[in-house]
Amino acid sequence: MTEAGSTESGTPTGRAARELLARADGLLGAAREVLGDHGRAVDAVREALDPLLDALVHGELSAIPVSRLKDVTEGRLRIGAVEQAGFTTVGQVHGANRYELRQIPGVGAQTADQALAAAGQIAHAVRDTVTVRIAVDTPDDATTALVTALYRLVEAGPDVRRAVDAARRLTERLDPLLAGAAPARGRLRMLFTGRPDRLRALAAVAGVQAVMADAAERELPLLFGQVSVDLLRSPDSEVAAWVDFEVRSAEYYSLLAEMSGTGPDRDAAEGFLPSGIADRVRGLRLEDARLRVSLRGYQSFGARFALAQKRVILGDEMGLGKTVQAIAALAHLAARGETHFLVVCPASVLINWTREVRARSTLHALPVHGPDRQNAFAQWRESGGVALTTFDALHTLPVAGDCGIRPGMLVVDEAHYVKNPATRRSRAVSGWSQQTERVLFLTGTPMENRVEEFRSLVRQLQPELAPSISSSHGAAGSQAFRRAVSPAYLRRNQQDVLTELPALVQVDEWEEFSAADLLAYREAVSAGQFMRMRRAAYACPGTSAKLNRLRELVAEAAGNGLKVVVFSYFREVLETVRQALGEEVFGPLSGSLAAARRQELIDGFSAAVGHAVLLSQIQAGGIGLNMQAASVVILCEPQIKPTMEHQAVARAHRMGQIRTVQVHRLLAADSVDQRMLDILARKERLFDAYARRSDVAETTPDAVDVSDGSLARRIVEEEQQRLAAEAGPAGAPAPGTES
Fold this sequence. Notes:
The chain is an alpha/beta fold. The protein is 55% helix and 9% strand. Helix 1 runs parallel beside helix 11 and helix 12 packs across helix 13.
């Protein structure tokens, strides 16, 4: 055996061993540098964050009466003397010290200590509930310091978490191995080491060799070096940090929630799943080497749910990032060796899916759509990647069994489109899902469906589960429904998991009909034309009360440099609005526009400096389009389905939004608007009670799924009767209704 030789097992000895250990020392040093740089970056954030949290806690404590201290001590604390001394709030007690309290007549050492301890307990509880909101419009020194500190961690990106985790594991493995291999660092030392110790040293060297080989395969030296550099990179200026915050606010807030410990309630983040399923999902480690984005905790859980349960529906409320959760699941499987994935979605979001896959992962996205789709499909079959196609195109492609490809996962976006198994699109999706082990359905609106329709989705995923789901589960309440469908269904909503989301301010703008408005409205009612009734308020633009209020709202937004999205069901109304505003507007978006043109309009709107207005049909803006550049939403009229409004508003009030979102709903008093709100009030309550807690709102089918036609007939009849009564005996009888 030479000086630079090795044992028969391949373990290096002599000079080779010493060189190996020297390289290991260097890698261990790099790992420790990463941990140190990350620790300092985290400390900088905490240093900037703590004063803001302290101020919020102080504000909350200042509103809590001092009498609440007795609740903490179960009535044992006597605070009469403290109150008489002028301490009226918990905040005042918390801000005092033991000496100050003991100066109060009648307050001894024990009372002072108990009062301070009780105030501390309340302060600790309050600290767990407060959330720092970063006001981009009114920056101050404290929030600027926080944004600047967060910048380093955000700029370093998702690699930071991988590097820190890898560095911790590496130090845990290498430290004891290097200690055990110490005799191999010197030729003479190894020579005079007893046989047992020499064998242990050689075993340790072998362990170091294995660790180093694994590190090289995972490119850890490069990762550690890059992350250390990134963690030391400061923004060019405070302005640059604020600009970056506006662009990537969701990532800043995600880190902020993690640092402050004010993340969502775990049960809510896990969709209130039964403990057995939740434990199994938590136990799955998500491979993120192919991801280019840091996941929120609830998003990681959603991706792992899809992987652990294999064939599921992810029904998160819009704005929570269902797309990125699906991409995370695909990236995990790709890291484990899968090569082919298929995404089926509406044509309107195909471009968005393509962009998201390319931006959020290293996966190859390949649109399979349009006249060249057969060639694109052949390319995907040959080379792999993520094939993205539409419901209408899927049935024109070879079926899974014939093309010889079994995707690692099939993702179906807006999966409620395939709730009817008799349709062509459902049959096409079913053909692929039957040949694919892992299937993920995405839909934020399955709660509009009846239980049977929901059951049809589950039947495609976990047929054995479908028979156990009955209408009685909906009637028994959301808890019973969740228990029944938990193996295949996960839903979270914004208020439970996006603790940092700015406020949503909704205002009903009631207007009186002008004389011309009223005449147009009466004519529509007399003709029994429901849709004409809904848009009558815009029939005479010159005197339209709604249009006048819309101009005022847009002018106010322009004065504040805010972007506005105007929604209407009617293209005719949007054209009237476009002409009335008399300024450069984007849109209108409509179902007739090509998907590429829709995205182009939204991109232009988002990129516009300062104020801008985007017009959109509510049907086109409610599915798959992100409009978080807007902070003012105007609804030209109420909608028949509550979820249609929820979807439209969620396009602006979603993850990534950094300002309070104002929603203004334009309503005409004593009109079809009022009748619609009255009738839909019960539907809205049922939606909140069930859909927001993973229930299918099925307790009273006719209350949550009133068809447009029946609702229209009821409203027209009521309005005909009301106007006839107002007109007296001379009121003209109303003809039949328009469906």
